[in-house]
Queue: 3 jobs
Job 1
Amino acid sequence: GVQIFDLKFEEDFVAEFQANAAEVLTSGRPLSESKFCRAFESAFAELVHAPHALVTSSGTMALNIAFRAVGVRGKAVIAPSNTFFATQVAVENAGAARCLSVDCEPEFMQVCPKALERLMSAQPAGSVAAVVLVHVGGIIAPFAGKIREIARAYGAALVEDAAHAHTSYLDGVGWAGTIGDIAAFSFFPTKVMTMGEGGVITTQSEGLYEACRQIKAFGSDLSGGASRFTCVRPDGTNGRVPELSALLGFLECRRVQQRVAQRQALVAAYVRGLEGCSAYHVLQQPGGSCSYYKCIVRLHGIDRDALRAFAKERGISFTGEVYHCGVHRMSAFTGATVTNGDAPTGGLSEGQLELPGTDEACATHACPPLYPELTEADVLRVCAVMREAATQLCGGSGDEDGKFAATAIVNAATVELPCSGAARG
């Protein structure tokens, strides 16, 4: 079979981790926020071409601190509904007055520039503190620069949720983690890199970096000496990181490029293996280098749950989608103040809204297994099962050429997706 996930560490990696862990435990240094935290920050900053990096206890904590640093308390934040809901949870915990959901465009399932412009223009001047851009699956969309321009035009910070996008880069746009004012990466075990649990904030702003350092350390004045802390920020929290977690992240920095190259090769294998099958379309970043945390496959004429069950019966476990359901459809947020600038329609409950692009994207994609421990032979086996599913579940041959793109355009026009024909920048 092909399992949902696997994570292996080479023998020399394990040996080096063990040797350094022993050194940490016998060094007499603090067991958190010491040598390896600083070494990891430096190594990761170099990887993503960011002048400042700050390690945190989780990716969600990185977002939480970033939102506090850009000043969302008492103001609005605009975030995509097509994201892991930790994005909105971090907005809430940072003290924002409300989180406004913006629809996604159909090609990359990311923030739609037209929808964002429409939503921003409907808000009172100065009321939106931040816009969130999520690099879904690690892909940097070619219009990311346009999102940045819109945010800046309205005086809002652009916060990158780069949880999937370690080392992603797109010509003409930049490196994930340097496109916005501030960014947050996740190092959960399934991510492109891991430190067990952890996160990193990156920014090009010295001021935001120093603010994040203070917030992470309870709101402390860090210039006063380690034994004489005073609180200078009431929005502080505890995002401190153990040395052993940082050690794992530091060692991961040495192998991530090789592992990303393997992810890229596996996605290319998926493209080849599904070529000509009109039921599937693999999303790819148009140029540059992508981390490919997920292999995102858009579906046409095949039910996702039926596909997943079909594959499971044959020993293949699909991974979680990005995402199976928009945040605006989740019970924690349906009664909250979320809007796209329009009056609620379609009989939705108060505070809920219609985001047709998000609903369409969430319902019509699947994510087959993708991790560096897979081989291209594994991928071709998955593709064979997916082709078989297309034949049996769609009633087609599974190898018809060229129909997906045309049908997708027709579908986008039919449901009047707000970003069909969205600006590319």
Job 2
Amino acid sequence: MFTHLDGGGVGSLGAHDSRRALETTQLPVSDLSTIWQMSDVDCDGRFTRGEFVCAMHLASGRRRGLEFPEELPQDLIDICIAVEEAAGG
């Protein structure tokens, strides 16, 4: 999904494309806002591939009824970093 939305090959998604992707989860806006705040680790208003993976993981858990963690778990941070490294970021 990330590659499709990043049609220009920039390596990150702007707010508009990120929002479109998050809206496909059909979660309430308040949940999407929380997901955005937790996943945009560098607070630049864009999602890198790793941040996108993090966001979609949080959304998937929320759709299954899980509560949001107080902060991103280290294992999720590690996965997102690994995704970035694998993508050459």
Job 3
Amino acid sequence: QINATRRGLELFQARGLSDAGPADPAAVQDLFSRPEVNYGTEWTAAMSSMIDMIPRGGAHSGLAYKMMTTQAVVTNAREAKLDLALADGAVENLTWMFADLTPIQAVWLDVDLEVTTTMKPVPHLNPLNTMDESMLRLREGGEQQTSKRKEPWKFPKMSFDDGDAIWFRIKINADKVVPNLPPGLTLAGDEALLWTVRWQPADVVNAWGLHSSLSEDYLDIENNEIWIVVPVEYKGVRYGYPILLLVDEDIALLIGLDIAGLPKKMANITYTFSPKPSRGSEVSLSISRNGRNVLEFSGRLTGKTEEPVAGINDMQCPTHDCDILTVVSKQFPWDPDYNRPLYLEVKTATRTFEQRGMEDLRATLGTAPQEPLGQWFAGQPTAGGYIRMDLDTLPSPNTPMENLLREVDKEGYIAWWKTSFPLLYM
């Protein structure tokens, strides 16, 4: 039996699988030989119309389809019989794709595949005109999994509500961090900012409560995530660069990747306060991924504080250190002369309800190459605290016009992507 389940919905079932005799391997190989085409959902291309309005030259303009050609080597093929069943949810309604659920053919096979990808540019075609709302919702929507809803009295509305956040700073091992910085960025400080938050809830695609067509029937989610941010300089301006984020909610993962270029990966996150956040509360944070220990952290909350934290909730930060620089998106640059990622500059806007200090901070960092916190950072946290807040983002007000949405430097990008592959995808 084969089951495909997402967000509690059993989308697809194949049941009663039985052998029906040998199949023709050559005929099965022909099924794989048809090229497949897609344009992806990353918003790098979708920003091309904005780039064209910026008074400077650039290679990135228009849509870029990706054509994938597959070569298959089938070593064993057997005809099969089976029954299919589908379940429709609020977003993932698959039954409309099929006339009925009687399989025309079913084959059980052993196969090796080699896929070759090439770019098919369509210059000056605005990708926003090609994005079908239903297809975006299939990727970035899903079943409701939290009963928490946004409080209607809050104004302005923000995408992320009632976040319980803890933060700490820790010393950087520069020689270990620098190889993971995209080309054009240099390290601009000796401390990193790590902050973990639980949003209760978030409506990720509904910035400032302005419902786009995508978020017409918006979806509240509740999730934990950790930001690992290092100070960088890009073309003479300082930013915080999120070198890695870990989340435990797939919608938060997909939207962060597609729209903001955030290097998010799924992880197991256990984040608790005992008792609820107040003076003397014990904080415990445990993060793992695929059986690897990433971070263990503990601390104890102290009295209330007033000074905002640069890089999280400091709305009056006098320097660019409070702005965030990301790469949208981090897909492999199949044709860097036509289609390559962009630097995106934003600033966080927050509404702070409570802040507290923290003492007895202890951190144990994993050293696996996929999440090398123990290689990037040294010693114990130097400072930390607690913030309860709402959050949304704005365009960076201090970034010079010539830096806005600038393409990632071509030289060195492919080498950086290969170096960072375990960090980004494994």
